[in-house]
Amino acid sequence: MSMVFRFRMLSDENDRFVRDYEVMYDMTLLEFHNFLLEALEYEPCMASFFTAGRRWEKLREFTLMEMGDGSAESPAMMEEVTLGQLMHRLRDRLIYLFDLFGDRAYYLELTGAYEADPEASYPREIYAVAEVPDQYDPSKTVADDDSSIFEDAMGDFSAFEGDDSYDDEY
Q: Is residue 153 scored above 70 in pLDDT?
């Protein structure tokens, strides 16, 4: 049976934006790029993928077109690399840079690897929260409200906020 990767996608432009995608492990980065464009309802554009470290630092680049001089440091082309060649452990990360000039990106983390469901069609979006940031103008990104997912989760603990009259020194 074939394997499916589940990715969680986040945006630093909208704290509430979350997407979960399931894709085949043998999908090329080019196919993944095209799927993301369709899922986000973006127009075709120049983009790059980067493998990323634990702190989201960009590591190795993968481009749509040949961009290097053939040296080992040159970016590889998206059509030549599959997700299965890059993703080996849960929490492996990719950065999808969809606006090269504005340095705007989405952050993808591998959250699961499963046996493909023979009844399902892949790739697919399985979870979505909040509006997609505008492809061309980040100022048009509309958050559902002024709170973030973190603030919503921590709201239950607001009763425990500090009491200024409490003195912990003896």
A: no
Residue/partner pairs of 57-63 with CB below 8 Å, 24 or more apart: 58/95, 62/29
Q: What single letter denotes the amino acid at residue 21?
A: Y
The Cα 29–Cα 103 span in angstroms is 19
pTM of the entire predicted model: 0.81
C-alpha torsion angle, residues 8, 45, 30, 10 (rounded to 10): -10
Biggest CA–CA distance in the chain, Å, is 68
Distances (CA, A) of 17 to 92, 144, 153: 20, 9, 15
CA angle 128, 131, 137 (to 5 degrees): 140
Instruction: Map out the domains of the chain with their CATH numbers.
Output: 3-154 (3.10.290.30)
Residue 68 — pLDDT band, cuts 50, 70, 90?
A: low
Per-residue pLDDT at 142: 59
C-alpha distances (whole Å) from 112 to each of 55, 57, 77 are 20, 22, 25
**Could you give the CA distance from residue 100 to residue 109 in angstroms, rounded to a whole number?**
20
Backbone angles phi, psi at 40, to 5 degrees: -85, -5
What is the C-alpha to C-alpha distance for residues 79 and 62, in angstroms, rounded to an integer? 9
